[in-house]
Amino acid sequence: MPVVDLNQKLTTFSDHWAPKIVEKFNGHDVMVVKVKGEFVWRSHADTDISSILSTRAVK
């Protein structure tokens, strides 16, 4: 399985709130998204695995 640089994938687009599929793993999509403004964390314990790569306040 190839290694995917998620930080590099984030540089390939600039729009916010539009998830992008960057890889497939075991039949599942690996997605990244850029967010802007307030973000309310949500969870679907039986379906989602989420991780935050980094945060940065943007004015």
Any overview of this molecule?
A hairpin with a 2-residue loop joins strand 1 and strand 2 (28-32). 8% of the residues lie in helices and 19% in strands. The radius of gyration is 13 Å and the shape is globular. The chain is mainly beta and 59 residues long. The mean pLDDT is 78. Strands 1-2 form a two-stranded antiparallel ribbon. The chain has one helix at residues 6-10, and strands spanning 20-25, 28-32. The protein has one domain (1-45).
Q: How widely separated are the two ends?
A: 38 Å
* Biggest pleated sheet: 2 strands, antiparallel
- Quaternary structure state of the chains depicted: single chain
Q: Order of strands side by side in the largest beta sheet?
A: 1-2
Basic shape? globular
Structural class: mainly beta
Key traits:
59 residues; mainly beta; two-stranded antiparallel sheet; 1 helix; 2 strands; globular
Please outline the helices and strands.
Elements: H1 6-10, E1 20-25, E2 28-32
Antiparallel strand pairs: 1-2
TL;DR of this structure?
This protein has 59 residues and is mainly β. The chain has one helix spanning 6-10; strands at 20-25, 28-32. The longest helix has 5 residues, at 6-10.
